[in-house]
Amino acid sequence: MQNFSKFKISKSFCNLLGNFISRKSGQKCCVYGQNGKPLSKDVVEKFLIKLKTNNEVELADPKYGQLSEFERSRRLVNWEPLEDYTKLFRIFYFKNVFLLTDFIREIYNLDYISNLHQIPNISVNNQEVFKVELYTPALKGLSFRDLQLATAINSLNFYKFKLVPLKSENNYRREIRSIGIDDERKKNENEINERSRFKNKYDALVYENNTFVDKNRGFDSDIPEPSGCSNPEGCACKQSNKTKYEL
Question: Does domain 32-169 have CATH number 3.30.1360.20?
Answer without folding.
Answer: yes
